[in-house]
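Today's session is about reading a structure prediction critically. Students often jump straight to the picture, but the first step is always the sequence itself: look for stretches that repeat, for charged clusters, for runs of hydrophobic residues. Only then move on to the predicted structure, which in these notes is written as discrete structure tokens rather than atom positions. Here is the chain we will use throughout the hour.
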Amino acid sequence: MKEIKAIGFDLFNTLITVAPPALKEALGRLVHSLKQSGFILEEELFRASHREAALRHLEECKQDGKETHNRFWISSALMKHGYEVMPDDFRIADAVEAYFTAFYDYSRLIPGTEEMLNKVRTTYLLGMLTNFTHGPAARRIIGQLGLTPLFDVILISGEIGFRKPNPLVFQKLCGHLGVLETQIMHVGDDPEADILGALNAGIQPVWVVHGDGAPFHDPIPREPSLPIGDVPTISSWQELLSILGEF
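Below is the predicted structure for this chain, in token form.
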């Protein structure tokens, strides 16, 4: 693919996986932090309120493409339990940090990812474009898994202020890498954020399909409502290297 000069990669469920216990553990640590800060909460009720708030804020993101943040979810959930606490309160900041420690413990590289990246970076510029609300946590995960030095550019929605599939974030990736939309390929697992997002930005996507916690098997079925057309689908990193045609 001589016209391709750069490759963009999604992070979660593309390059890395997060073990299933992480979310439950993260919420437990969040609630524990809030209780240590003096809030009196019934854990299961708060979990339900937090989930409701998160889904509401994430749905709003789909409307305007702007990124949200966990502190807004926590503030909204606390208000349902009688606490008028603003999102920038230090107790919420502490709870956010506690929440993400679970992701540090449960994030793992998909086997073969580091080897693949080291191969392709000899020929292509590499960019990472990930949807993640809390930039510092994302950068810590990326760093502790050894990915930071493998990429020329790392863009995180929580730092940009917008999230995939907004074309703006793909344009920023191209700008930071110094390439045109026709000169970059984007590799990701999410049909809407990665595949349609890239297509709408004029970028060639490659769809990664693999199961939860078990890389590159149990393919995710294509959603007929998504007009993705003829998008290359890979079920192993060797298939990506074959598409590139130089390895």
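Discussion point for the tutorial: DSSP finds ten helices and eight strands in the chain.
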